[in-house]
From TrEMBL:
Keyword hit for Nucleotide-binding: no
Name by which UniProt lists this protein: Exo-alpha-sialidase
Segments for region (Disordered): 481-504
GO molecular function, one term: hydrolase activity, acting on glycosyl bonds
Taxonomic source organism: Sphingomonas glacialis
Protein keywords: Carbohydrate metabolism, Glycosidase, Hydrolase, Polysaccharide degradation, Signal
PANTHER family xrefs: OLIGOXYLOGLUCAN-REDUCING END-SPECIFIC XYLOGLUCANASE-RELATED, XYLOGLUCANASE (EUROFUNG)
Basic and acidic residues: bias regions: 481-492
Homology family: Belongs to the glycosyl hydrolase 74 family.
Record SUPFAM superfamilies: Oligoxyloglucan reducing end-specific cellobiohydrolase (SSF110296)
Length: 726
């Protein structure tokens, strides 16, 4: 039996608390942006709904505020931001449960709240979860018995079926369940396990637990659906197709609807089907004929029923690439179906970022969350890999969908810059390319095109000519491309592709893979790319030549005030390289004060932030991170002095009259600011603003003292200001 542990979602401070400066934190608005595997309406209160995401935690819809409220901003455990399942109590609107755990190698827990997610009690569990693994769109794995709300079931990926009889405080494995589990997966693999638990409330009553329970299996095996008629004491296999039972819901009459799929999803599903099981357990194939007629591609990961209209069911497709995903509705128990997608239209004017791929807003992709409002059958919502759509016009000839995203910011930020002129912020996102943020409180227009790269890996700007912006990026899909870099002369609003001389294997061009960072001189005239053979251009990319003295794959950093100066760290030889001829050549300098081992300064991977930064306001002022320490030079790298005090630095960035960092001091991990060149630090986040501790990049603003930008891995992009200046 697993006992509860009452834990705060924030890591407690030690007795010695570092100095703190109150900051006001606000999301830079995009409007959702990532994959939300499911949305669940509360059956206990009108206007109450919950959304779970795969790496950005959970949200609650606040009907009065007309906004989604993030429920885990005080959480400091990274793994708990991957939500495997969510279950609101069907009787008490204040109670909600979550299963949290990012993947098989990270901590997992059942979280329970009695105040709609404002605070949580945590039960760590020994079985692994996969909130950000394949199969995260299955479910729901967590179920509350409507007839005895202290009784919960949870279907695990790797270790069978589990049960709690004390409202989630303790858990024990259901020994009688026929599928015990497959054990921990091999690296880079996962299991579907018990994909959903669906409880039929029609065969119980007040004080009498429900007798009939269904459980779907999403692993290979003889049977994929099991039924218990005695509250889980014994189980029998149900008939069905030779496919994985992916999604299951029970309607108020005790009818079970199951979406079957050939794979776990959200990608790679080839085919599927939809079945209906009556109260006697007899199953029928009720797959929409319109789906079959278009090639039976993909499957049904979205399945929803209307409690107010018996016999009404909606299903959505996933991985239907040739014809596009859609949604079907039946009002006669699956005998006939209406293809809603064919008469749908979408208004994304409030979240124009959805047009970032250069095409109109289609029905969506990775659709696995689908829900019908239990109090309004015309109100239906579905989730995609980038947004949440909702409509209140399901029964009309034309169905109008709008993003239902106010308050949701679920994106992964790879990089960002705050230039010395122009827009205050330019960002590089995963999956969404990146944006010019002229207004931090409005969803941005997509401008990172020509070339379009789904992931922006590096951005740089010319310190004295900040309208000159350069970027590199990569595609998460293997699409044809002839450039992985771009240059802008108007602050990132329009771009010209930069094409390097072909390098590497013709089948895997090194100049096109987006791995290599680009930098631009203070006047915008010179660009340097850290390809295996470093290249420099002085004519806006029309021609390129080899950089002398700079080893391959080493990032060059431009001085922000002197166009002749560039710097680089050669970690293999443990030396600082300097160019004084606008990157025509580099030569080592006998830098005094640096540690003997500079290996930690050579951060690996195309998404890694630079360990070397040039101050935006002073010539020859450099900051270098080596391991957990910062070093400062004010003479173009000739001498360095330690500049991080007692702070153990993970990430750092520069701003006006200040230095910002993510790191730990006196046992407290957080976001910090120094105004005395790193001698002392003040904490600027707090225990209500931890965002899972998943930080990717931090930077100050060179024009606004105290302003900081923080990119997270799942909770979007933030800007913070000292409260005294707001």
């Amino acid at each position: 039996m697993i006992a509860t542990v009452a834990l705060s979602l924030a890591v407690p401070s030690l007795a010695k608390t570092p100095a703190a400066v109150p900051y006001h934190w606000t999301n830079v608005k995009v409007g959702a942006g990532g994959y939300a595997p499911n949305i669940v309406f509360s059956p206990a209160e009108r206007g109450l709904a919950y959304l779970r995401t795969d790496m950005g935690g959970a949200y609650r819809w606040d009907e009065k505020a007309q906004a989604w409220v993030p429920l885990q901003d005080g959480n400091a455990v990274p793994s708990y931001m991957g939500i495997e399942s969510i279950a609101p109590d069907p009787r008490d609107p204040n109670v909600v449960y979550m299963a949290a755990g990012m993947n098989a190698g990270q901590p997992a827990a059942i979280l329970r709240s009695a105040d709609r997610g404002r605070s949580w009690r945590i039960t760590p569990v020994p079985f692994a979860m996969g909130g950000n693994e394949d199969g995260r769109g299955l479910g729901e794995r967590l179920a509350v018995d409507p007839n005895d709300t202290r009784r919960l079931f949870f279907g695990s990926r790797h270790d069978g079926l589990w049960r709690s009889d004390d409202a989630g405080a303790t858990w024990r494995k259901v020994a009688a369940f026929p599928v015990a589990g497959l054990g921990r997966p091999a690296p880079r693999t996962t299991h579907g396990g018990v994909a959903f638990v669906a409880i039929d409330a029609t065969n119980g009553g007040a004080g009498r637990p429900s007798r009939r329970i269904w459980a779907g299996i999403a692993d290979p095996g003889v049977a994929h659906l099991y039924r218990s008629d005695d509250g889980g004491e014994t189980w029998v296999a149900a008939t069905g197709p030779a496919l994985l039972a992916a999604k299951g819901v029970v309607d108020p009459r005790g009818v079970l609807w199951v979406g079957y799929a050939s794979g776990l999803g959200p990608s790679g599903i080839k085919t599927g089907t939809l079945w209906r099981y009556d109260a006697t357990g007899v199953g029928h194939d009720v797959t929409p004929s319109g789906w079959r007629d278009t090639g039976a591609e993909g499957a049904f990961l979205g399945v929803a029923v209307s409690p107010m209209e018996p016999g009404t069911v909606a299903v959505s497709t996933v991985d239907r690439y040739r014809h596009g995903d859609s949604l079907w509705v039946s009002r006669d128990d699956g005998r006939s179906w209406d293809d809603v997608g064919a008469r749908s239209q979408r208004d994304v004017s409030q979240t124009p970022f959805l047009l970032h791929e250069g095409k109109g807003a289609d029905f969506g992709h990775w659709i696995s969350g689908l829900a019908i409002d239990p109090f309004d059958p015309g109100h239906i919502a579905y989730t995609t890999g980038a947004t949440v759509y909702a409509t209140r016009s399901l029964g009309r000839t034309s169905v109008d969908w709008t993003p239902w995203t106010t308050g949701i910011e679920q994106t992964a930020i790879i990089t960002l810059v705050s230039p010395t002129g122009g827009a205050p912020l330019i960002s590089g996102f995963g999956d969404l390319a990146g944006f010019v943020h002229d207004d931090l409180d409005r969803s941005p227009q997509p401008t990172f095109v020509n070339p379009y790269m789904s992931n922006t890996n590096t951005i740089d700007y010319a310190g004295m000519a900040p309208n000159v912006i350069v970027r590199t990026g990569s595609l998460y899909l293997d699409r044809p491309r002839d450039a992985s870099m771009g240059r802008s002369e108007d602050g990132g609003r329009t771009w010209t592709p930069l094409k390097l001389p072909p390098m590497g294997d013709p089948a895997k061009r090194e100049d096109l893979n987006g791995d290599w960072p680009i930098s631009v001189s203070a006047d915008g005239a010179t660009m340097v790319v850290a390809t295996p053979v470093p290249q420099v251009s002085r004519d806006c990319g029309r021609s390129w030549s080899v950089v002398r003295g700079l080893p391959g794959k080493i990032r060059a950093v431009a001085d922000k005030r002197d166009p002749r100066l560039f710097y680089a760290v050669d970690t293999d030889r443990g030396q600082l390289l300097v160019s004084r001829d606008a990157a025509a050549s580099f030569a080592p300098v006998a830098a005094r004060g640096l540690p003997a081992d500079l290996t930690p300064a050579g951060r690996k991977g195309r998404e890694a932030q630079s360990a070397l930064l040039a101050a935006p306001d002073r010539t020859g002022t450099l900051w270098l991170q080596a391991g957990e320490r910062l070093f400062l030079s004010t003479d173009s790298g000739m001498t360095f002095v330690p500049a991080s005090g007692a702070l153990r630095v993970e990430l750092f960035g520069l701003g006006k009259h200040g230095l910002f960092a993510v790191g730990s001091l006196d046992g407290v991990r957080g976001v910090w600011r120094s105004v005395d060149t790193g001698k002392t630090w003040s904490r600027i986040d707090d225990d209500a603003h931890r965002w899972g501790g998943r930080y990717r990049v931090v930077s100050g603003d060179p024009r606004r003292a105290g302003r900081v930008y923080l990119g997270t891995d799942g909770r979007g992009l933030f800007y913070g200001d000292p409260m005294a200046v707001r």
